[in-house]
Design the sequence.
């Protein structure tokens, strides 16, 4: 079984579409639907929903440091693909966070952490260690 969808409520849909839309597109998700307050990207049977819900409590901003969801982790094809994403992330509303480059679940993974303007964190995880030989990263190889 896999997750059907993950829904993130954001304070500014246009800003979130810019940052999340870019990242999700690079990770192989495709924009499947858009409505007044949100949109959904799909990859296979899994969806990521970004919504500026009218039901959101005004003034209550997301904080990954409060109880609740801390971050979303995505598979990335290779360490080179992680580097490619890191090289372009600042142009799309993300900043790289510091952090241990080795993952606590396995020292044989390359990881990177990004945060968007609204404080949402994503973790990018690739098999293998940075600096190891891998296929060149090009558009579509980030998946």
Sequence:
């Amino acid at each position: 079984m896999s997750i059907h969808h993950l829904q993130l409520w954001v304070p500014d849909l246009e800003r979130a579409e810019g940052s999340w839309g870019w990242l999700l597109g690079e990770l192989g998700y495709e924009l499947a639907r858009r409505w007044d307050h949100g949109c959904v990207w799909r990859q296979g049977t899994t969806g990521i929903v970004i919504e500026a819900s009218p039901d959101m409590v005004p003034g209550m901003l997301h904080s990954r440091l409060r109880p609740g969801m801390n971050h979303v982790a995505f598979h990335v094809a290779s360490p080179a693909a992680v580097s490619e994403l890191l090289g372009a992330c600042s142009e799309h509303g993300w900043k790289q966070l510091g952090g241990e480059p080795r993952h606590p679940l396995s020292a044989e993974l390359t990881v990177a952490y990004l945060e968007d303007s609204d404080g949402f964190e994503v973790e990018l995880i690739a098999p293998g260690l940075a600096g190891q030989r891998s296929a060149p990263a090009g558009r579509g190889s980030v998946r």
